[in-house]
């Protein structure tokens, strides 16, 4: 039996939606390693993903299989603590523990470790590692990166995933947000009252699935800086750029596409100099039907700020 499922609730223009789709593909790939599950995008008003070559036929069966799949190994990742903003010594010790448990059949912890950061890059004070550009929460306001993941693994149900993938996308759940949706960018200047006391309202299922996409965005030291796959600086801001494709791709093929330099090219680089612009023909040659970019911004003043994505734009 081979089935395709259209994940109609996910919008590929939303960075949280895109990450949730990639996380879904990764979990499905681990759920059925004997098959080659693939993902494509279909344009029906917006870009939404389609999973192919599934051995299940109902939404409930798919969501139950995703939850039952060995996911982020919190028994190992949790040794870092509640957050990944640790000292280079702590991170080096963590990598040693990951390496001691590494096997050919299970490299999940190592894949996440590569996505978290590097002990080779530290902040100006030398106290903390430089960490992934996808880490928007670092412990302030009781919002913990790994703590949120652990709580989501304990809280998210089949019903949450079914709503995220096939239902009506909304921000109906309180807290447990990685702040990867532009709806989290709530500026006080644009509202009639301070949104801070309201706390974060989000989609738990989307955040749970999106965290599973992190291994496809490794963070590596390059020229004394930590570079996260998919991120480049534009106009003084970090920006996340991601592709949309209509040809079904397997997980390894998606990882290769996400790392292509063509996606990050712009007419102006971070120094304000002109750089080579990627043409539509070049993007289509590597399989892209559309490319979206969202700026990563800080909202607030001084130490009292929050990090979020702004709404994306189609390139």
Q: What would a concise description of this structure say?
A:
With 315 residues, the protein is of the alpha+beta class.
Question: Can you offer a commentary on this structure?
Answer:
With 315 residues, the chain is α+β, with helices and mostly antiparallel strands. It has 10 helices and 14 strands. Strands 10, 11, 12, 13 and 14 form a 5-stranded antiparallel β-sheet that branches. The protein has a 3-stranded antiparallel β-sheet with strand order 1-3-2, with helices on one face. Helix 1 packs across helix 2, helix 2 crosses helix 7 and helix 6 crosses helix 8. The protein is globular, with a radius of gyration of 19 Å.
State the main characteristics:
5-stranded antiparallel β-sheet; 3-stranded antiparallel β-sheet; alpha+beta; 315 residues
Structural class: alpha+beta
- Return Rg in Å: 19 Å
Question: For the report, how would you describe the main beta sheet?
Answer: 5 strands, antiparallel
**Count of helical stretches:** 10
- Would you list the SSEs in sequence order as H and E? EHEEHHHHEEHHEEHEEEEHHEEE
Helicity level, as a percent range?
25-40%
Proportion in β-strands: 15-25%
**pLDDT under 50 segments (min length 5)?**
267-274
Strands, count: 14
Return the average pLDDT rounded to an integer: 88
N-to-C terminal Cα separation, in Å? 38 Å
User: How would you describe the shape?
Assistant: globular
């Amino acid at each position: 039996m081979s089935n395709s499922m259209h994940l109609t609730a996910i919008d590929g223009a939303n960075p949280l939606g895109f990450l949730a789709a990639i996380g879904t593909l990764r979990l499905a790939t681990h759920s059925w390693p004997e098959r080659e599950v693939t993902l494509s995008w279909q344009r029906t008003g917006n870009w939404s993903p389609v999973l192919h070559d599934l051995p299940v036929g109902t939404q409930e069966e798919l969501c139950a299989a995703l939850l039952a799949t060995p996911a982020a190994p919190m028994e190992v990742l949790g040794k870092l603590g509640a957050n990944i903003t640790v000292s280079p010594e702590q991170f080096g010790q963590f990598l040693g523990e990951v390496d001691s448990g590494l096997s050919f059949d299970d490299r999940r912890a190592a894949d996440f470790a590569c996505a978290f950061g590097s002990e080779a890059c530290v902040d100006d004070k030398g106290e903390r590692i430089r960490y992934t550009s996808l880490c928007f929460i670092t412990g302030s306001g009781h919002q913990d990166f790994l703590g949120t993941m652990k709580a989501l693994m304990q809280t998210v149900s089949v019903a949450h995933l079914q709503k995220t993938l096939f239902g009506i996308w909304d921000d109906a759940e309180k807290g447990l947000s990685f702040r990867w949706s532009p709806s989290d960018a709530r500026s006080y200047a644009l509202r009639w009252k301070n949104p801070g006391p309201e706390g974060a309202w989000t989609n738990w299922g989307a955040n749970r699935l999106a965290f599973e996409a992190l291994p496809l965005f490794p963070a590596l030291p390059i020229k004394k800086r930590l570079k996260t796959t998919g991120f480049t600086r534009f106009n003084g801001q970090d920006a996340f750029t991601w592709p949309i494709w209509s040809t079904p791709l397997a997980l390894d093929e998606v990882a290769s596409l996400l790392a292509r330099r063509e996606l990050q090219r712009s007419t102006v680089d971070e120094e304000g100099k002109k750089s080579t612009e990627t043409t539509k023909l070049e993007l289509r040659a590597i399989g892209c039907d559309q490319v979206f970019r969202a700026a990563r911004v800080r909202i607030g003043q001084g130490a009292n700020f929050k990090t979020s994505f702004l709404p994306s734009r189609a390139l």
